[in-house]
Amino acid sequence: MMMEMDKLIFRSMELRDIPAVVAIEHEAFSSPWTSEAFENELNNNMFARYMVVEYRGELIGYGGMWVIMDEAHMTNIAVRRDVRGMGLGNKLIEQLQRTAVFFGAARMTLEVRVSNGHAQRLYRKHGFQDSGLRPGYYSDNNEDALIMWAELDAEHWKTGGIDNE
Q1: 123 an active-site residue?
Q2: What is the average pLDDT across 75-91?
Q3: Structural domains of the chain, with CATH
Q4: String of DSSP letters for 91-140
Q5: Is the full-model pTM beyond 0.85?
Q6: How far apart are CA 36 and CA 59, in angstroms?
Q7: Closest C-alpha among 56, 134, 137, 124 to residue 93
Q8: Which has fewest Cβ within 10 Å: 17, 63, 95, 107?
Q9: What are residue 150's phi and psi, to 5 degrees?
Q10: Known catalytic residue: 62?
């Protein structure tokens, strides 16, 4: 599939998106979030900011974070299996960083499996640096999580960010 990046639509996640998001969760993660977890995030977590990306009317990816004071914590990000490797992860991270700055964040953090080198490389492209480990963080196999942090350059995003350079 050849994707026209100018046809991507990024928008806030809505309750009606949850079935498609959960389907992507199941493709992407060994311990996927449930529908109830996403419903709780959208309905009850005042810090939660979740977005989806659509292409030609189909939901193909999503990402989420909590923005608390001047820090954003990326909770999850994934794209549909059939569109991986097309740069959508990059675009989603850019949108999350831009949104985090909009809501007042100066820094962003995340956890990633120590075995997931692909994701770690992607995050490093967006300014994330290793800052520690959370031993036994993942409940499915007791794997450690690498903690990563990035400084968010508000001026960069206010002037249009990567897309307009």
Answers
A1: yes
A2: 93
A3: 5-164 (3.40.630.30)
A4: HHHHHHHHHHHHTT-SEEEEEEETT-HHHHHHHHHTT-EEEEEETT--TT
A5: yes
A6: 19
A7: 124
A8: 107
A9: -135, 140
A10: no
Catalytic residue among 14, 123, 151, 165: 123
pLDDT tens digits along 41-65? 999 999 999 999 999 999 999 999 9
Q: 142 near 136, Cβ under 8 Å?
A: yes
78-106 burial: b if 16+ Cβ within 10 Å, else e: bbbeebbebebbebbbbbbbbbbbeeebe
Q: Which amino acid is at 76?
A: N
Q: Which of 25, 55, 62, 111 is catalytic?
A: 111
137/144 Cα distance (integer angstroms): 5
The SS3 call for residue 51 is strand
